[in-house]
């Protein structure tokens, strides 16, 4: 009756699986009937006689005379398993964080009976130890230090788990602190602090660059003015040398002339040259007026005479 019910359940599976499932169930049923059991690869079987543990069965086919009370009460996998634990705690600077730890563990083959009988829920046991170590370690550290000391926290968790779980037949292969997640507001504040610090550094660099540019510009202007002064000095020196030569040459060629007469003649020549250049410019707006107290009086007299002449012409 039991096998009929099993085969009835199999009828509800897709056709592509029905044949394999039926064959497997049938072989298992026949094997148990003839006192044979199968232990799969990477697992061990727990053999009992009348409810008392007797031995651990390795992968393969085993003779199991159920008539004398022998049976396989269960199978224990030896594969590497991983448990992800999320633990919420508080740092030394009163920031709540969620620590994500990944525990990689497996049952030890030589202590398979302890792993099978001593713990009913190994995941809950491991999780409890992880909570205990993390909540004892993180409150001693500030948030930045917690990020920097992830490896030390993982090592502390692993050492505690190894001491506790070895007695139950489990090996802790590796412990990883995958992530430390602060509150969303804290993360946003940290990003703003980081951005402000980077902006401050950028402002300092920009100010230094502008300072260097201004210094180089001032140095360039100073050098340009220095060179310009040298040019002007050389120009004036050349003018003075030329005037001296002209005065000496004119005095030698024209007897009876003094150096003052020659200088007056040179200045008059330069005056007419200057007036010629100003008059030649099409858009010149320069006006030359005599200066000095006597010159102002002459200008006032000329203006008064001009008004009188204009009035006499209008009267006529």
Tell me about this structure.
59% of the residues lie in helices and 20% in strands. It is an alpha+beta fold. The strands form three sheets. Strands 3-2-5 form a three-stranded antiparallel beta sheet. Strand 2 and strand 3 form a beta hairpin. The longest helix has 70 residues, at 184-253.
Give the end-to-end Cα distance, rounded to a whole number of Å. Answer: 156 Å
User: What's the Cα radius of gyration?
Assistant: 55 Å
Supply the helix-strand structural class.
alpha+beta
Order of helices and strands: HHEEEEEEEHHHHEHHH
Biggest sheet strand order reads 3-2-5
- Strand % is 15-25%
What gross morphology would you assign?
Answer: rod-shaped
Please bin the fraction of helical residues. 55-70%
Largest sheet geometry: 3 strands, antiparallel
Uncertain segments are: 1-7
Oligomer: single chain
Average of per-residue pLDDT values: 79
Instruction: Determine the number of helices (DSSP H or I, runs of at least 4 residues).
Output: 9
The number of distinct β-strands equals 8
């Amino acid at each position: 009756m039991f096998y009929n019910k099993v085969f009835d359940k199999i009828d509800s599976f897709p056709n592509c699986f029905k044949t394999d499932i039926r064959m497997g169930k049938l072989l298992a049923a026949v094997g148990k009937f003839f006192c044979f059991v199968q232990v799969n690869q990477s697992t061990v079987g727990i053999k009992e006689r009348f409810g008392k543990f007797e031995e651990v069965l390795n992968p393969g086919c085993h003779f199991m005379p159920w008539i004398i009370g022998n049976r396989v009460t269960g199978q224990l996998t030896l594969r590497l398993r991983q448990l992800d634990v999320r633990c919420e705690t508080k740092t030394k600077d009163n920031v709540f964080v969620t620590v994500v730890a990944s525990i990689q563990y497996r049952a030890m083959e030589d202590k398979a009976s302890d792993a099978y009988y001593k713990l009913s829920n190994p995941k809950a046991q491991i999780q409890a130890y992880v909570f205990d170590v993390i909540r004892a370690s993180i409150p001693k550290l500030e948030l930045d230090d917690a990020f920097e000391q992830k490896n030390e926290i993982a090592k502390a968790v692993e050492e505690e788990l190894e001491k506790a779980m070895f007695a139950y037949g489990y090996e802790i292969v590796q412990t990883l602190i995958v992530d430390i997640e602060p509150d969303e507001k804290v993360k946003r504040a940290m990003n703003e602090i980081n951005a402000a610090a980077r902006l401050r550094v950028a402002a300092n660099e920009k100010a230094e660059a502008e300072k260097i540019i201004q210094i180089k510009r001032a140095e360039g202007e100073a050098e340009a003015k220095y060179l310009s002064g040298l040019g002007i000095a050389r120009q004036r020196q050349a003018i003075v040398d030329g005037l001296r030569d002209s005065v000496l040459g004119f005095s030698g060629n024209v007897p009876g002339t003094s150096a003052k007469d020659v200088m007056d003649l040179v200045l008059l020549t330069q005056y007419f040259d200057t007036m010629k250049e100003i008059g030649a410019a099409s858009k010149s707006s320069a006006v030359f007026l005599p200066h000095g107290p006597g010159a102002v009086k002459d200008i006032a007299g000329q203006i008064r005479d001009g008004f009188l002449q204009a009035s006499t012409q209008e009267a006529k």
